Please model this.
Amino acid sequence: MAKEELFEKKFIGGLLRRLGAFPVKRGSGDRQSLKTGINHLKNGEMMLLFPEGNRSKDDQLGEGLAGAGFFALRTEAVVVPAYVKGWYKPFKGVQLTYGKPIPMDDLRESKASSREATERIMEHIRQLRDDIE
Model:
């Protein structure tokens, strides 16, 4: 899943397609992208999401958007949090930290909102960040 503007660039668009990515119209509640994402997850495929809708330019976490929670609640996909530190610093190295899978069954059973599920995901990402700093 990547912003649709990236698919307009010849090299990066081709690379994204070969990696199995699909375009999303950010900020529009793109129903086709939501359906595509659900189908990927229900077929057992993996999907990488930045819950904030983009990458941070300073290691600060922003507010998570409801999309990550939407996919978590509507599929049986395992949600594995990850924190990326320093990606924006050229030649300084990037640190990628993965957490344990996040339990979502209780939120599915209680019919929680996508926002609530996203907040749980963001809490786990915050904890990963705090653990390495």
